[in-house]
Amino acid sequence: MAVVLGKLSMPANIGQNQPYILSDETTQSMVVVVPERGGIITDWRTQDQKIFYLDKERFADPTLSVRGGIPLLFPICGNVVDDTYTLDGESYKIKQHGFARTLPWEVTQQSTENGASITVTLRSSDETRAVYPFNFALNYTYILKGNTLEMRYSHTNLSQKPMPFATGIHPYFAVTDKSQLEFDLPSNEYKLKGEQTVNTFSGEFDFNAEEIDWAFVNLSKQSAVVTDKSRNLKLTINYDSNYSTLVFWTVKGKDFYCLEPWTAPRNAMNTGESLLIAEPGKTVETVISMTAEIG
Fold first, then answer.
1. What is the pTM of this model?
2. What are the two backbone dihedrals, phi and then psi, of residue 242, each rounded to the nearest 5 degrees?
3. Closest among 276, 266, 273, 272 to 82, alpha carbons compared
């Protein structure tokens, strides 16, 4: 297997952010990582098929959240009510999906052993402690091996008290005709955004709706499959047992859909539901992988 790892010398349409590239020549696969822009993967291609959607204009504006690639969610997924949560009697304000997706990360490791990989790191700061009162180190590793992208997420608690958190990803998958999508999801039970009623999924989405924002719950397996018949593309998402929720989100008229593994649902920092706990000095690791098959 011919694997190449390196830094792209000519960033295109992404402002001052310096991208890194992971490449697997045998499967004609490539992944682009931009550490300074939230540690994000912006692009994944295999056999010339574009897997991710990216709004380049939003990406070039550092004041806007990224709409595309794989934004990283930490220490919450979704929002908390009124952007406020209470911990140990203190109230904190935090924006939707947390701060990991908006802060600059740094590259701390690169390797070409057993696939092309890169590790990006985010450490706590005065800025993060103002909204999340813990010292931590996040070490997220992306591994490209053939047509599989593996993501290993390590969350280390450097504080003297247990650290509750949620983590997840918000991948934007490119699609030109949503009517050609077929879904094999791990649950037929979902909740609408902001509601607690559990609904039954018929197996099909109404893509004429202005927006779909559903959280699938009571997951029966650690995988989901989406087949895009218009491109002969089969995408399989695997995630470990830490992930309790799978969110589907899309907007009418936009060439993307999102299928998002979360370890905890919205407002979990207030309710405590499915929160992960890293004990002092300990690391909690979660794993997600995606495989793209053409033909």
1. 0.94
2. -70, -20
3. 266
> How confident is the model over 29-66, as pLDDT tens digits?
999 999 999 999 999 999 989 999 999 989 888 888 89
List of long-range contacts for 1-6, beta carbons under 8 Å, 24+ apart: 1/26, 1/146, 2/26, 3/112, 3/115, 3/116, 3/144, 4/112, 4/116, 5/110, 5/111, 5/112, 5/116, 5/117, 5/118
Q: How far apart are CA 173 and CA 160, in angstroms?
A: 39
Cβ-contact 86, 271 below 8 angstroms: no
Give CA 18 to chain center in angstroms.
20
- Summarised one tens digit per residue, pLDDT across range 233-267 is 999 999 999 999 999 999 999 999 999 999 999 99
DSSP states of 194-231 = T----EE--S---TTSSEEEEEE-S--SSEEEEEETTT
